[in-house]
From TrEMBL:
<dbReference type="Pfam" id="PF02954">
    <property type="entry name" value="HTH_8"/>
</dbReference>
<dbReference type="Pfam" id="PF25601">
    <property type="entry name" value="AAA_lid_14"/>
</dbReference>
<dbReference type="InterPro" id="IPR002078">
    <property type="entry name" value="Sigma_54_int"/>
</dbReference>
<keyword id="KW-0805">Transcription regulation</keyword>
<keyword id="KW-0067">ATP-binding</keyword>
<dbReference type="InterPro" id="IPR027417">
    <property type="entry name" value="P-loop_NTPase"/>
</dbReference>
<dbReference type="Pfam" id="PF01590">
    <property type="entry name" value="GAF"/>
</dbReference>
<keyword id="KW-0804">Transcription</keyword>
<dbReference type="InterPro" id="IPR003593">
    <property type="entry name" value="AAA+_ATPase"/>
</dbReference>
<dbReference type="InterPro" id="IPR025662">
    <property type="entry name" value="Sigma_54_int_dom_ATP-bd_1"/>
</dbReference>
<dbReference type="InterPro" id="IPR025944">
    <property type="entry name" value="Sigma_54_int_dom_CS"/>
</dbReference>
<dbReference type="GO" id="GO:0006355">
    <property type="term" value="P:regulation of DNA-templated transcription"/>
</dbReference>
<dbReference type="InterPro" id="IPR002197">
    <property type="entry name" value="HTH_Fis"/>
</dbReference>
<feature type="region of interest" description="Disordered">
    <location>
        <begin position="306"/>
        <end position="326"/>
    </location>
</feature>
<keyword id="KW-0238">DNA-binding</keyword>
<feature type="domain" description="Sigma-54 factor interaction">
    <location>
        <begin position="346"/>
        <end position="557"/>
    </location>
</feature>
<dbReference type="InterPro" id="IPR009057">
    <property type="entry name" value="Homeodomain-like_sf"/>
</dbReference>
Length: 630
């Protein structure tokens, strides 16, 4: 067993010189120390963010994770049985490292309480330095952190083994950790924790996989029906749409393959060919690393597999899908309250048009895609039409289709039109504020009568569509000035979702870090330094997420693995603009629960300080949070 690391000398060297000779620390721990240093976290920090989340807020965070927490419970209970007699605790935290639950030996629970390792406390790396919970989340990999490997001096008496729970798209939803005295927590414990997490991930996968063709894989055919098998899921176009770590590991791939790889890219033949060749749903597959056994799992019944809020009409067969769910449908909503998406799904399922508003680049299109992917129509078409990009005379033909010879330049055989192409699925009308008035009238008729009349006088055709619209324009003002029909406005504007601009979403630094992680910046160990993040925070981001996302992609393309990025690494003009920007005004009221939470976290959870920074009273802040949550 690896001895408990003391590392006094290594800590002193790192503290004084910021560098260490090779071999003193496991690479993942050294990289984490470097990250913590770049966050500006002092190793000697005695306390940071010591305030516990209030009970109501903790209850809300548990509620937000309720789906996976209930799936994880049996494995967490079993893990507890395995470790309790050794005086250890099992800790469950959410995807931000906030501890939600703890089960353990009373002797260590007391000590855990003194170390703030208890529910309601935040253990993300940015707050508490290198520690198994925060570092496992940062790496999206299991990690063991013992004694002096902890970045903060005060945690040197602790040892923790943690594994992140990844959803089938590779996003960490939470983490399971076993902690205790350093001599009792070792590599074997990490294996125990990781085995429990793999089972939880498998259950998450099974919940998500309705409508996909899912394969269980293992090098040994006798293991296919066991929890040791990996999982891959493919959509109707045989594109990889979900995976677990084990299966990706055997293929030598990572989660970035999702949405980009087809079955044939992985196995050298199509899935339909493999199924017809093997004559049954079980057989061997050839990969670049050797042979794997595989079994096609039976389709899941939707009602059994989705959380109750999303259970609605049963899905249609995947094979009927001409467009299919997009590979990026699982895209993070970058600082938006997840409730928004759930609420929008409810409206869509109830056949109420969803209107998405917001400045350019705030992610309206992404929101519409995520909405489609989260709805019961995920396996049916998603048809996007940009009303501003079509010449005025063509919008009608594009939307409603036309009969043969309806107008000069029409295709000979006519056209079904985009609304009919979306039959059974979702139509996304982007920039609806740019739709000509005459077309608005026809659209209203389609929404009321549920039939499309092609140009040129063809017979009315029934359509079954759900509608999502977006615009950056002020539709109400357009109604007042007569350029948007009032009747259509009231048809569309039941419950508009106004996506806030990036500058009003709370901590731009935290959003940048989340996107950075999603783009694999962490895995390449390229660090956004504290100075750079500070500059991001003072800039107004007129291009919103588009501008931030493009900048991060550019930096990733330009710099080598292991670089610590500073303001000097930005393009000159942008750096000058950012440096000239007025520091962000704290008085902008954050516009969603998560933005309010981020604001609160910056004040170490202290409601009084957070309210003061916004120039409002504590009670106003409480009311605001309650209103946003409702
Ligand atoms: N949630 C997100 N995560 C990561 N990047 C995002 C996200 N939302 C938006 N982006 C980035 O911003 C770009 C623009 O997003 P999107 O097209 O959805 O915005 P929009 O509000 O529809 O913009 P416009 O009004 O100009 O059409 C995306 O291509 C992507 O680079």
């Amino acid at each position: 067993m690896r001895p408990v690391p003391d590392l006094t000398e290594a800590r002193r060297l790192f503290y004084e010189t910021a560098s260490l000779p090779d071999g003193l620390l496991p690479p993942s721990i050294l990289q984490s120390w470097r990250r913590c240093r770049s966050f500006g976290l002092p190793m000697q920090a005695r306390t940071r963010n010591e305030e516990r989340l209030e009970a109501t807020e903790l209850a809300r965070r548990r509620e937000a994770s309720a789906d996976w927490l209930s799936l994880a419970r049996p494995q967490v209970d079993t893990l507890f049985e395995q470790v309790v007699d050794d005086g250890l605790v099992v800790v469950v935290a959410d995807g931000q490292g906030l501890i939600l639950d703890e089960l353990g030996h009373p002797a260590f629970l007391d000590r855990a309480e003194r170390l703030a390792l208890t529910p309601g406390m935040a253990w993300g790396e940015t707050i508490r330095g290198t520690n198994a919970i925060g570092t496992a989340l940062a790496l999206a990999d299991p990690v063991l952190v013992r004694g002096g490997e902890h970045y903060l001096e005060r945690n040197r008496t602790l040892a923790c083994a943690a594994s992140p729970i990844l959803d089938p798209f590779g996003q960490p939803v939470g983490v399971v950790d076993v902690s205790g005295p350093p001599r009792r927590v070792h590599a074997g414990r990490l294996q125990q924790v990781d085995a429990a997490v793999r089972l939880i991930e498998q259950r998450l996968f099974d919940v998500a996989r309705a409508g996909w063709m899912t394969l269980a894989l293992h090098p040994d055919a006798s293991q296919l029906a066991t929890p040791r098998a990996g999982r891959l899921a493919f959509d109707a176009q045989e594109r990889l749409c979900a995976a677990d770590r084990r299966a990706l590991g055997w293929l030598g791939r990572d989660f970035s393959a999702i949405g980009h790889c087809r079955f044939a890219d992985l196995f050298g033949e199509t899935l339909s060919h493999w199924l017809s060749r093997s004559g049954q749903a079980t057989g061997r597959l050839t990969t670049s690393g050797g042979l794997l056994s595989a079994r096609l799992l039976p389709q899941m019944a939707l009602a059994a597999s989705l959380p109750s809020s999303s259970r609605a009409t049963p899905p249609r067969p995947v094979s009927a899908n001409p467009a299919g769910p997009r590979g990026d449908a699982a895209a993070t909503l970058a600082g938006l309250e997840p409730q928004w998406l759930a609420r929008a799904v409810r409206l869509l399922e109830a056949d109420i048009p969803v209107l998405v508003l917001g400045e350019t680049g705030v992610g309206k299109d992404r929101f519409a895609q995520a909405l489609h992917a989260a709805s019961s129509r995920a396996a049916r078409p998603f048809v996007a039409v940009n009303c501003a990009a079509l010449p005025e005379g063509l919008v009608e033909a594009e939307l409603f289709g036309y009969e043969e010879g309806a107008f000069t330049g029409a295709r000979r055989q006519g056209s079904r039109g985009r609304l009919r192409e979306a039959h059974g699925g979702v139509v996304f009308l982007d920039e609806i504020g740019d739709m000509p008035l005459a077309v608005q009238a026809r659209l209203l008729r389609v929404l009321q009568e549920r039939v499309v009349c092609p140009l040129g006088g063809g017979a009315p055709q029934p359509v079954d569509i759900r509608l999502v619209c977006a615009t950056h324009r002020d539709l109400k003002a357009m109604v007042a000035e007569g350029s948007f029909r009032a009747d259509l406005y009231y048809r569309l504007c039941h419950h508009p979702f106004r996506l806030p601009p990036l500058r009003a979403r709370g901590d731009v630094g935290a959003i940048a870090l989340a996107l950075w992680q999603a783009h694999g910046g962490h895995r390449r160990n390229i660090v956004l330094s504290a100075d750079l993040l500070a500059l991001f925070r003072r800039y107004a981001w007129p291009g919103n997420l588009r501008e931030l996302d493009n900048l991060l992609r550019t930096l990733l393309a330009l710099y080598d693995d292991g670089t610590v990025l500073a303001p000097r690494d930005l393009p000159d003009t942008l750096r000058e603009e950012m440096e000239d920007a007025e520091p962000a005004q704290p008085l902008v009221m954050p516009a969603s629960v998560s933005a309010l939470e981020a604001h609160l976290a910056r004040h170490q959870g202290n409601m009084t300080a957070a309210a003061r920074a916004l120039g409002i009273s504590r009670s106003t802040l409480y009311r605001r949070m309650a209103r946003e949550r409702a």
